[in-house]
């Protein structure tokens, strides 16, 4: 009755029954892996839907950095969506994972810069600049991106908070979560059959 019961403090670590941990290390089926691949896609869709809700229902206008962070979420979501179609290919998963990690790192940089701008004293905040749409009409995309990264004063405004954190702080947390998830996702084992 008590064959598998061990007293941890008097039993060497090698004798502990790890049978219940086996489910964590077993390879996943392709469908299980697809589910783990579609979850971050759905997360990105949900985050973008909420951003549109905040913009069009709560009437909080996004700044240039907010728009760029949305673009990063779109790219991450699309990469995960495309990765659903060839889940068992080892190198394909590594390539998708590397692209997602690179994109997520860009998102971390953008959101971190945005949070830093919101923490600046009012006298150090740069003046407001033109909108992203106006910059794209008047200059090349690289000049517009460069100008956006210098940011305008409205990027420092905190219009929304939840649990004491601004929206850029929450997007930073989401980007970090997606980065960690992607690292784990890249090394999940999949059954060959």
Structure description:
Helix 3 (64-83) packs antiparallel against helix 4 (90-118) and helix 4 (90-118) packs antiparallel against helix 7 (167-186). Helix content is 61%, strand content 2%. The two termini are 37 Å apart. The chain has one domain: Bromodomain-like (Up-down Bundle). The protein is an all-alpha fold. It has helices at residues 22-25, 30-56, 64-83, 90-118, 132-138, 141-150, 167-186, and strands at 161-162, 165-166.
CATH topology: Bromodomain-like
Q: What is the H/E order?
A: HHHHHHEEH
Number of strands: 2
Q: Which superfamily, in CATH terms, is the homologous superfamily?
A: DsbB-like
Structural class from helices and strands? mainly alpha
Task: Average the pLDDT over all residues and give the rounded result.
Answer: 76
What percentage of residues falls in helices of 4 or more residues?
55-70%
Side by side, the strands of the main sheet go 1-2
Q: Please, how many domains? A: 1
From the 3D coordinates, which CATH architecture would you assign?
Up-down Bundle
Beta-strand content: under 5%
CATH class, please? Mainly Alpha
Total of DSSP H or I helical runs spanning 4+ residues? 7
Distance between the termini: 37 Å
Shape, please?
elongated
What's the main sheet like?
2 strands, antiparallel
* Low-pLDDT regions: 13-24
| CA gyration radius, whole angstroms | 22 Å
């Amino acid at each position: 009755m008590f064959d598998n019961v061990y007293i941890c403090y008097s039993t060497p670590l090698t004798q502990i029954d790890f049978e219940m941990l086996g489910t964590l290390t077993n390879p996943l089926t392709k469908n299980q892996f697809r589910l783990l691949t579609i979850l971050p896609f759905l997360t990105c869709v949900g985050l973008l839907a909420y951003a549109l809700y905040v913009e069009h229902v709560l009437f909080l206008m996004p700044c240039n950095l907010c728009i760029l962070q949305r673009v990063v979420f779109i790219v991450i979501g699309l990469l995960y969506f495309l990765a659903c179609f060839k889940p068992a290919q080892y190198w394909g998963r590594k390539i998708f994972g590397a692209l997602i990690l690179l994109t997520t790192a860009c998102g971390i940089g953008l959101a971190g810069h945005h949070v830093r701008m919101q923490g600046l004293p009012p006298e150090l905040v740069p003046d407001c600049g033109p909108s992203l749409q106006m910059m794209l009409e008047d200059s090349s995309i690289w000049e517009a991106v460069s100008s956006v990264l210098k940011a305008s004063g409205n990027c420092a405004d905190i219009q929304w908070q939840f649990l004491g954190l601004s929206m850029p702080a929450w997007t930073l947390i989401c980007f970090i979560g997606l980065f960690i998830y992607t690292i784990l996702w890249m090394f999940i084992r999949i059954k060959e059959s």
